Amino acid sequence: MARYPRSDELESPSSIDHGGSGTPHYGGGDGSGDSGDASPDYYQNLRRYRLFVFLVFIGVFIFFTALSSAYIIRRGNGHVDWQTGAFVRDWQPLTLPSILWMNTLLLALSSCALEFARRNLVRQVAIAPAVAVPGVAREKKYSAPWLALTLILGGGFLAGQFLAWERLRAAGVFIATNPSSSFFYILTASHAAHLIGGMLALIYAAGLSIFSTKLEREVVVVDVTSWYWHFMGLLWIYIFLLMRFAQ
What we know:
6 helices, mainly alpha, single chain, 247 residues, two-stranded antiparallel sheet, Four Helix Bundle (Hemerythrin (Met), subunit A)
């Protein structure tokens, strides 16, 4: 005669064997994207690096605030002509190269491309628990093409800045020609130097996207780089408007 198992003999859900592999594992301390959900270390690292980038923002902001303040103060300075007694300003308005408009557009488009890459990676981390379940199809990662496009557009911006400098030099406007030209070269060159730092981080992120299997590490690098890149884009718009309307 069949005997029904008692309640204490029933297996608990955690002891059921799922195809001999045990309960699916959704996280890992190694930060690997293939292990499923992001580990606590991933969120800690993300907050830590975001804080670091925020501190970098403060330093860059102070630097360019000092430059722009010097720009405005120097624009209004001059000297008194001892013969006529008139106040003479040596500041001469600088005609900005028209290519700067195209450069601004390229940098804005690069920020959009980088944001697409960041959101794709964040989505990959969010759905990691689902794709870790056997039988669930894994979505394709599209971050690498967007990162490559960001690098191309960023390189186009830097090439356009160099072309703007060349056009000014061809017109006989050098860094020592006038205080306005001095500030133009200093502001644009300083911004370009900071942007190159962001491009180096993008190259590293693109390498992770192609060669690394650790999704969380790639997300952290792309996330903090995108914050820095967007900040540099906004900073350039500020510099461009300053030189355009504060002549």
